[in-house]
Structure formats: structure tokens, C-alpha cells
Specification:
- The protein is of the alpha/beta class.
- Helices cover 30% and strands 17% of the residues.
- Strands 5, 12, 13, 14, 15, 16 and 17 form a 7-stranded mixed β-sheet that branches. The chain has a 6-stranded mixed β-sheet with strand order 7-2-1-11-20-19, sandwiched between helices.
- The longest helix is centred in the middle third of the chain and has 18 residues.
- The radius of gyration is 27 Å and the shape is globular.
Amino acid sequence: VGKVLRSAVRTPIPALASLCSPGASMAVASQAKDYRVCVLGGGMSALAAVEQLTQMQSRLEIDVFCELYDPCEPNHSYGFGQKPYVDYVPEFLASDGPEFAAQMREWEREGLLLRCGENSVIQLGVAEGHNNENQRFLQRQRYKPKGGAMQLCRQLLRKHATSSAGTVRVRAEQPWTISATTRGGWLVSFGKAPQEHYHFVLLAYDFCWRLTHVKAIRELLDSGMPHTKKLIGCFGELHAAKCLALTFSVEPPLGRAVTWDAALVHGNPVLKWAFRSHHCEAAVWQRPRGAEHWILLSTSEHSQERFGVRWDKQKAGQEMLDMFAKVAGVDISERQVRFVGNPYHWDLPAPRNRPRGELGLLADAKHAIGWTGDFCVEPTPEGCWLAGSRAGHILAGALQSNGQVDFGHLSDTELLPPWEYHPMRFGDEDLAALTFSATPAASAYRGTCNWEQAEEIMLDRFKHGELADSDHVWFDHLPKNAQQEFARKRKLRARSSTVGSQQPDVHRAPARLVSRAAAEAAAPVVAHSLRVAVVGSGPAGFFCAEVLAELARLGKASLDGPVHLFRSRSKLSATQMETDHNTVYPRPGEPFFDYGCQYITAGDPWFRAKMEASEAKGFCHRWPVGVLG
């Protein structure tokens, strides 16, 4: 499927083929549209934004691209879960407000949702002193998507495409890059197919409903630099909660031995949220098929305590499994239990903070690009819907008939605001339980998120003092050394603050919110041996690794272990353009893509000695050279 999608020739496909029954067709509008909007991502926030746009604007042509390329998960296909965390989706939907509650009742009438029983989701223990939150948990009506949360989004996309009279098209192509144009708007590239122009690009990503991978969003934003810099820089203020996660299968199934399907656990750091992942055709990771599958999440405090260099994953996983058996009151010793993958330290399960204002949208008006998702409101299914609805409402009012964008009274600071911590509260479930139930200090550890562009932009913001007044204790996209300096300066500011001031815990974080890890990071850096990785399959990479190894053997370089040489090719050659080509060997029939020299001239004495050594080993032979003319 991935090969077909990546090699598809650009045609005006009105809907993703996998969403349509054979022979199905969708009307294509014949009238010209004033404005073309590109939506990158097919999750719940994207759906809500598209619905709001179509309700408020009749002059739009909206193309939704669900298939986004992830360099770390090249086999990922929209609507199918290859892994339990990368493709994490909610098992239940619930609402605290009237808007999403009404929407869920509508989906129930359409046969898309099933109403859950009172004991489907329970609390184990009680949040002491939080009676209102406990009551909110008990009174919440929950629904379960028929066929799973992924299938729900696919069905809703098909509904929007079929009912929009051509306004909405779900495209099968996979966007490779986005690039700003001098005339305004963006060109979206599909590889060998022609580029297409859009007046506005809207990216959509939901932490709690992962039909799109965040790395895919990163790749597209990176391709749009420098015009995406402000958007990346704003998102760089993310501070995510963290946890340990365990997925396991059990045979024979626990079944009614556990009378509930999900539990919010209080007073137990090892286990915060546990749920039964029901069988779903879209969940490819559910193996073996006859088994029952469960997912367990710990608190951020517990993950900070257990995680470290060479941490014992199996021991941590067994600890979580034993605690599950204890709180569930079941004996699993006579059942066959298998871990699905290794116990996992989850760096980015859900954001601990959000952009101020809760507009549901980050937007750069000058460059006509925006980003919506549950992180703009809260990491819940309701947060996904509210964020997308608000983003669509704002964007519909900003799109002008002349192809320009005017957000009216909303300033650049409001559209790209500083971030604030969520206030602590209890009674939330699923990933939101990690977001709201712990102080920011609990997740103020664990390096960065390895997004190079975001780290560079955040480092630049830090050096220019843009983060000086921040009340945050951690930024996941700030490079490690800068994170240490940021923590040190925060401690100094906290110590110099007015004694006896009554600032709230979140908005003016005192020194006690600085985690142990962040405090230790402020200590002087001690020099250690280096681990070196050389990435590349050409002569430069090989000789670099060889010289480093020689220097280490001579005691002229302090290295920790061997030099690691990674020969894999770039993401473009390995997956996007040449699906099966991830090798150092040339591919027949591709003379220029795999272009290499036929002979080597050795003039430099050092290089000549290297080639003579290669000749002695039989790797090459001398080749006489003549002159013509």
C-alpha cells in the first residue's frame, strides 16, 4: 500500500481509495473557488477544522492529506496502528462540556459510537480532598467508537468528502515538502508529480489521537524553513509529561475476571492508567490475535525515578505488570503473558502546558501557515475537537477573497503566544491524567526531543533573552547544555524573588518546582570520554571513522568504546523515492542515482599510502592512465 501511495501520479482523486467502497464516487465542484486550503494530517482536530471551514465558507477548496511520511516509521499507513504508542488512540471518548457532548450524541445516532456502561471506566482509590473532581469522573458519559478510534476518523473523513459537493477532497498522494512562494501561499511537492499551490497550509497533530506522526509534521515544517521558523519556535516551548509504558498480551484472556475496561489509579506511582485494548482490525500491533491486550502507564514521578542510563527495562516492566495484577485483583501466574515490545520510556505522551489563550491554533499570518491540535487546548478527545473547531472558525473568518489572510484583531503575539502550564486537577483519564495530576517538576528531565530545527531555534531564542521571563522549569526542545544554563538562571531568579510573595504554583513557579535533575544539571560539567558515531556510506565517512580509531589506539583521542559507522542512506533514498533501496550497493538500472567514480587518483602521500594498503588487500588494482590529444 505504501508503495502504491508513494508512486501515485497526481490526479484529482476526490477521496482516499481505502475509504471508499468499489464504485463509489464523489461530486466534484465545477465552480471556481477563491481559496485553496491544504490540511496536513487526518486526525480529529483536522476533521473538526474541516467541518467548521465548510460550514462557514463556501468559496474554499480544501484538500486533506492523511498520508504523511515519517522517516522513523516509513511503513506507517494512515488508519493503521503499527505500534501501540506511536499510533496511540483513545479507547473511550468523553466530554466535560456541552459542545463535544452534543457531537458525540450525534455520532451515536449515526451508529458510529456505542454508549459505555457505568463500570467500563473506574477509579481505583480516591483523590483525597478532591470531591468535585471525583464526582466529575463518576458522572462523565463515555462512548466507544465502533471499530476503533482510527476507523471513526476515516468514516468521518469520507462523510465530509461525500457531502461537501467537491469542497473537501481527501487526497491519496503523500506530500514530500512545502515551500513558500514569492506571490504568497505555499507550493506542496509530491515528488515527481507537479507541485500545487495553496493559499493557506494548516497542519494538524493530536497527542491523544495519533493518526498522524509528529515526526511527519516535523519533516514538513523543516522543509518550509525559514518561513516556518516562527511556528516551530512557538511549539518549541512544549514541556511534555513523561511516563513508563507497558503493553502486554495475556492468554487465555482475563475476560470478566477484570470487570472493568479501564482504571484511573490513585496513590500508586507505579500505575496511573490501565486499559484493555479491545481487538481492532486497524491495530496491526495486536499479536497474537487470540490474546487479550492491555496498556499500562505509570506516573511521571515514577518514570523519572526508574529511567536512566542502561536502565533495566524488563525489571521496570515486570514491576508494572505485578502492580496491575495487584490492583486488578487477578492471578496471572497461570496465564501466558508476553510483552509487546520492550517496556518503554515515553518522552512525549502528552503536553504538560499549552499556548496561552486556547485559540485552538498557532498561526503565522505573514506566511499563511497554521498548526492545530489538542495541545492547543488539552490532550483529550474533547480537546482535539475543540481545538480543530476553534481553528476552523478563526481561519474561516481570516481568509479573504483576494487570497490574503487577515486575522483581524488577533495580534501576532496572540497567534504565536507564550505557553503556560495547565493548572493541576484530578479526575482526568487516559493521557490527560499525566498532564493534570503532577507538578511540572515531575517531568523536568530527560534531554531533548531530537528535533534539530526546533533545538536551534529555541537556542537562538534563549541566547536573545526571549525566554528570560518564562515561568517554565523545562523545555523539551531546548538543547541539553542550554537546558542546564536555563535551569541555573531559573534558580537564581527564584532565589532573588521577593520573600513571602504569593504567586500561584504554576504561573510563577518557585524554586521547589525545579526538579532534582534540572538542579543537578546546573552543576559544573565534568569532561568524559566521547561516544562517536559517523553517519554516511561514502569514503569520507569511512576514513573519518578509521582515523578516529587510529587516534584512539595511539592515545591521542579519548573515546568511550569503538567508533560507530552507520552506512544507511538518507530518508529520501531509503523510503520515499526508492522504497527497497537501503543498502551500500548500487541498484541496477539507476546509473545516476548510484553514481560512483570508476578510478581513483592518489596524489596526497597519506591517501596514496591508504590506496597502496587497499591494493595489498586485493580491494583495488593499479590502472595505467594515458592521454588523448
